[in-house]
Amino acid sequence: MTSVEYDQSVDLHNDLLEDVNKNHRLIGKLLYLTNTRPYITFAVQSLSQFMQQPKVSHWDAALRVVRYIKGDPGKGLLLSSNQKPQLTGFCDADWAACPNTKRTVTGSILKFGDYLISWKSKK
Fold first, then answer.
1. Are 73 and 30 within 8 A, CB to CB?
2. Quick check: 62 and 46 in contact, CB under 8 A?
3. How many other C-beta atoms can be found within 10 angstroms of the C-beta atom of residue 114?
4. DSSP tag of 16
5. What is the 3-state secondary structure (H, E, C) of 40-69?
């Protein structure tokens, strides 16, 4: 469903943003921040889909992401200038490990430097 179809289905008359350049600059800055704050990636990617015709609600949502970031400045990946950043991944699987279901148990982690950025476990 496109944003136009969504607006028509819920009968929203959201005005287009007058200054699209400020929206482009803000989304660009947020995209840059996703390098050290991967937890905002989905929100920024969703907002970047409306770069051609951003609406006031998209601008408000982008400002909400900024307020979220400002609310907890200690979050994010703090990279050392002394070490070369390295991406490391580990995975493991155990065939039919669960005694009840005989399903395979798998797990994986992804680290960027000393920081855990992804973890997944599946039974």
1. no
2. no
3. 13
4. B
5. HHHHHHHHHCCCCCCEHHHHHHHHHHHHHH
CA atoms within 13 A on the CB side of 30: 27
Cα(23)–Cα(30) distance, integer angstroms:
11
Domains of the chain: which residue ranges? 3-71, 87-122
Work out the burial of residue 23: count CB atoms within 10 Å of its CB; fewer than 13 is exposed, 13-18 middle, 19 or more buried. Answer: buried
Q: Sheet harboring 87-94: ordered strands across?
A: 87-94, 105-112, 115-122
Q: Which DSSP helix (H) or strand (E) runs through 48?
A: helix 41-48
Q: The pTM is what?
A: 0.58
3-class state of residue 73 by DSSP: coil
Q: Give, for all 123 residues of the chain, the pLDDT tens digit.
A: 565 666 666 555 578 888 889 999 999 999 998 887 888 888 999 898 888 888 888 888 899 999 998 888 777 767 777 777 788 898 888 777 666 777 777 888 888 877 777 777 766
Contact 65, 33 (CB under 8 A): no
Q: Which residue has the tokens 């969703």?
A: 46
